[in-house]
Amino acid sequence: MRQSFLPLLLALALCTGIAPAAEPITPPEAIRAAAVAAVGGDLATTEAAVDPNLRMATCSATLQAVPTSARIVRVRCPDQPGWQLYVPVQVRDIEKVLVVTQPVQAGETITADMLAMRRRDMAGAGSGFADPAALVGQTAQRSLAPGAAPTREDMSEGPLLRRGDPVVLVSKAGGIEVRVAGRALGRAAPGGAISVENLQSRRIIRGRVVGAGIVEVMR
Length: 219
Prior knowledge:
The protein folds into three domains: 2-91; 94-156, Alpha-Beta Complex (Type Iii Antifreeze Protein Isoform Hplc 12), CATH 3.90.1210.10; 166-217, SH3 type barrels (Roll), CATH 2.30.30. By secondary structure, it is mainly beta. Strand 14 (204-211) and strand 15 form a beta hairpin. The strands form five sheets. It has a five-stranded mixed barrel. It has a four-stranded antiparallel β-sheet with strand order 2-6-5-4. It has helices at 2-12, 28-38, 132-135, and strands at 25-26, 46-48, 56-57, 64-67, 72-77, 83-91, 94-100, 115-121, 139-140, 155-156, 166-173, 176-184, 193-198, 204-211, 214-217. Helices cover 12% and strands 36% of the residues. 25% of the residues are buried. The two termini are 51 Å apart. The longest helix has 11 residues, at 2-12.
């Protein structure tokens, strides 16, 4: 994994801080440790791509490290003239979670025979499932490839409404409820917003899915 970061690391280094061969250097491990600490990680769970052959000039002050994005940390020597280096980082969060063992299409209901427990890096992926009872019976909101770990954002607890599906459009005002036939113009899970065509007036109305095939007009 570390090797894949090295071209990027070398491209991001400011060459003015590279020490001649005979001069002392800042240990690459010290640069790596500073980058890891900046993202609140530790050396066991965080990968910081620092070339072990890198020769940055020795630094008399404490290295300063600040994240500039979710995957990049700027490590700086505050000496004069000093130097700075942009280090790619990757935080790992290895968990035992449920994965699907076969392709799953959007709108398909998850069954127990689709699932297996595997170790996956869930860093930045969302909240996975460790209990089959919490996942079985839910509906996939998007397609999942074999081996993918479904997250709570991928699932809904009811059937997925898809473009072209017939719906009942419900409008409530002043204690009066009106129901008309409609047609879904997009895809939405229960609780999600969707555009619906009123088949009686041909108007396009924005609503929220409140039940199986039922969309309540949003006001």
